[in-house]
Amino acid sequence: MKQLIIFIILLAVLGLNAQSPLSNELSEDFNEEYIDADSVDYDAYTQKTSSFKALFNGKPGRAILYGMLIPGGGQIYNKDYWKVPLALAAEGAGIATFIYFRSQFNGFDNAYRETVEGDSSASFRGVSGVSSLYNFRNRFQKTSEQAGVAMIVIHILVAVESYIDRHLSVFDIDEDLSINYSAPGINYTGTVNGVSLSYRF
After folding, report:
1. What domain range is 61 assigned to?
2. What is the number of structural domains in the chain?
3. Rounded to two decimals, what is the model's pTM?
4. What does the alpha-carbon distance between residue 139 and residue 44 come to, in Å, rounded to a whole number?
5. What is the arithmetic mean of pLDDT over 170-189?
6. Residue 42 falls within a domain, yes or no?
7. Any residues with CB less than 8 A from the CB of 121 and at least 6 apart, and which?
């Protein structure tokens, strides 16, 4: 047991002696190319970019930004002019639907309020009576709220389409999507032999 401990100590001492010249040489080389810690801007490395801000970076970010600000703006920025009428039609349909259902709600709501205040002749679109006006009012209120959500979703989808289209425009769309491969072969390089098989997509 003592011999084993002595052997381990001798190896450690020899290892330290053998490494000391090399370690000194490496430390000198390292010091020559050492970067002063004070010159490093740690805030720039540690600061996290907001994912919301990162969404608007680059050309795809500009496309979705213009699309959010102006209906069809992203398609105009991408120069997809044939998509602009489609984008405007989709957003216009959403806006028109919301306006229609909201106007119906406002009409039934005004007639209902007038009836509650004592005007028995108040009616809207041929509907009169407190209970009937109340039911129609609530129905169109719910429908107008759903139409408002749909209008916002359509606007976002049109903007996101321009964002995705801008990303896809830089992708390789080569028609040759087949897999090319080379037959297995034996390589003779001196005393080392090998077999190769390669695929290219």
Report:
1. 55-168
2. 1
3. 0.58
4. 54
5. 55
6. no
7. 128
